[in-house]
Amino acid sequence: MATPARNPDLHGNVPDKSDVALLLIDVLNDLEFDSGARLLKPALRMARQLSKLARRARKLGIPVIYVNDNFGKWRSDFRQQLAHCLRDDVRGKPVVEMLQPEPHDYFVLKPKNSGFYNTTLELLLEYLQVKRVIVAGIATNNCVLFTANDAYMRDLEVIVPRDCVAAADPAEHRHALTQMRKVLKARTGSQSALDLAALAGRRKRKRR
What we know:
single chain; Rossmann fold; alpha/beta; 7 helices
């Protein structure tokens, strides 16, 4: 596929090229569904670590891309969902408060489980010339897994920090991480162990 035409004004202060991108899957989430109560505690743990990772990424100029479900509402948008989670008395409010987007972050709305299915994500990653993706968010055994799988199918290197993903069922969380590590060759260490500067091509990467 040809590289999209480049517009020097498209991204403002965000770099037009990055070897790595951070994908935040379904973190703008009210958790108002059947398994939401069980998901809240692991999601809070995840959010504390993911907020640290996102801050580190932004400081290095690594694109942070929010890939969020449309919750079956084809007229919904990210700002509306964010306002709902922050303003209304919803279960997921403390998670969203820790993971609020910043002005130069990107947004992709997805209709199904994978962040790649019928979305602009692939085009955006091609534009940025991304070689590897850090996939984080909710839920490990569902939308994170589907997105990581589709990234792998597109020959992207996949990284899934185990402390930056969450699921309602601990056993399914662990199983999904194992599957991604074995089948997708994903790195599943902690976020603190990630050398973001090396992943972004800023310095030589250490051998695994």
